[in-house]
User: What shape does this take?
Amino acid sequence: MLLRRPCLPRLSPRHLRPETPMASTLALLRPSAPSPLAGPSAPSPAAAVRLPFRSRFSTRVTLGSAVAAGADTLFADYKPTTAFLFPGQGAQAVGMGKDALNVGAAAELFAKANDILGYDLLNLCIDGPKEKLNSTVISQPAIYVTSLAAVEVLRAREEGQSVIDSVDVTCGLSLGEYTALAFAGAFSFEDGLKLVKLRGEAMQDASDAANSAMVSVIGLDSEKVQQLCDAANEDVDEKEKVQIANFLCPGNYAVSGGVKGIEAVEAKAKSFKARMTVCLAVAGAFHTSFMQPAVSRLESALAATEIRSPRIPVISNVDAQPHSDPETIKKILAQQVTSPVQWETTVTTLLGKGLEKSYELGPGKVIAGIIKRINKGASVENIGA
Assistant: This one.
């Protein structure tokens, strides 16, 4: 049975739990702050391109055809050693956020989120109910805030700041790309949350306008999954067609499309030797043209948002490349909701470039599992909140 989550009514505002400690360590969270989660030593936006590590990058390589030559190549030759990886929708679970109660800076993130969202996000993360937390309009802000709270939980640990300082590349799965950009100082925590809030609402509305769904196909390589999609598409109308939406890792690819197309994928999967198919509890066909109605809303919001060049490379889901030009980043983020997620390419590229250590920050251990499927010897640690 395909699971689809209806759009939920707005929750009434509630105060942050009184026992939650508050601290001044996140004074950097003002919207004008250059790097909201980089700690007290973070450089200003103007200084971002003058950081010492810039010498590790050159501008000799031109990126994809959509990228202006010379304007977006700051990180073209990046050499990763330590990565922060941020999860996407689906990682949420009731109980996440508990560790934020014991770290003032993490709790303050939730308090600021309450003001923007209009409801008690931390209470919803910790206590649920599950149905509300799983909805697109709530799960996206919840994962974004909890993931950045995990950075503060790590910072509060012994040697935590040194780990944060060692990070020289970051990325996130779908929604997690916004979290990564916030960590890298491309926009403030508050501006990022406003974008994520709108993104969740726009994707929910696009899903409500079409009868669509997603399914994971387990046990096949990407070529076989594409053949499965082609076979399913022969049996359905144009509006029901499916495509690979998430290239996650060998043996695990998510397919999005019309409900009839998804049903055809499920019916034919065994004949293609798939081990199983798993229906995803999402609102609709993410990362396909079904999300096109969300693009214009995102474009308008991004146009009105101050975006700066990130202080470290942030790898895009669209083309598995880092981008430094703010206007290109805006275009990429708008394009992201209708483009397949190139996560497998991202991870294999990072590992191939010499990545030594990864940290998954946020709820769940989905990303850690994916990385281990790609390379069993890869070093990855989960930091929850």
Summary: The two ends are 32 Å apart (CA to CA). The beta strands are 82-86, 169-172, 212-218, 242-249, 252-258, 276-279, 314-315, 357-361, 380-383. Residues 215 and 279 are 4 Å apart (CA to CA).
